[in-house]
Specification:
This protein is α+β, with helices and mostly antiparallel strands. The chain has nine helices and four strands, in the order ααααβαβαββααα. Helices cover 53% and strands 12% of the residues. Helix 3 packs parallel to helix 5 and helix 4 runs parallel beside helix 9.
Length: 205
């Protein structure tokens, strides 16, 4: 998309956004209280939150940036804020946000900030995916102007195709489908999201 400044994304919002460490502290506290983010505290939602909490903890330790992505990162001169809409129960967020964190830790020109979707629907509704409030949604902003450079999300293309196909022709129950998507993530080992970010960074620079 062309660079554009969205009034809902301003310095007040960014100052109140969470760092990755603060986000992890929040979902850890909620996990210990057997809660999750948002108003839906159903047994199913809490189950998703528990599984995804452990996924994030594992990926924080295991996610490794590939050499091609590192090369693009260190050739990029654009200082950015990556604002990510997320929730603690979201499986796609758990799989991809640790990669964003690894990128921001390795590359000081990228500052990662996170906000909860359901507390920031005015932001979410500016960045819908096929009309839906799908997360995670990464919004890359120019650090100085807060112009939107580009977006990514809510999931890598292969996983998105799995979702689209299931919505078109549901095959089996939803819980089995969710497991299939998570198995794909496990086999992919973050490679596809890294490759997609690598391509986008070349465009954003």
């Amino acid at each position: 998309m062309a660079a554009e400044v969205y009034p809902v994304i301003n310095s007040d919002l960014l100052n109140s956004a969470m760092s990755f460490d603060n986000y992890m502290a929040l979902i850890t506290e909620l996990y210990e209280q057997k809660k999750t983010t948002g108003d839906n505290q159903s047994e199913a939602m809490l189950g998703y939150a528990k599984i995804n909490f452990h996924r994030m903890k594992r990926l924080i330790k295991t996610a490794q940036l590939n050499d091609d992505l590192k090369q693009v990162l260190f050739s990029n001169q654009t200082k950015m804020i990556w604002l990510v809409l997320t929730e603690g129960w979201c499986g796609d967020a758990a799989q991809n946000i640790p990669v964003f964190n690894a990128i921001s830790k390795a590359f000081p020109n990228i500052e990662l900030k996170l906000i909860l979707r359901d507390e920031n629907l005015e932001v979410m509704d500016q960045f819908l995916t096929n009309g839906g409030r799908s997360i995670p949604k990464l919004i890359a902003l120019n650090l100085e102007t807060l112009e939107t450079i580009g977006t990514w999300g809510p999931r890598p293309a292969t996983a998105q195709k799995m979702v689209n196909d299931f919505k078109t022709i549901p095959n089996g129950d939803y819980s089995a489908f969710v497991k299939d998507v998570q198995l794909w993530y496990a086999k992919d080992k973050t490679n596809e999201v890294q490759n997609e970010i690598k391509v986008l960074l070349k465009e954003w620079n």
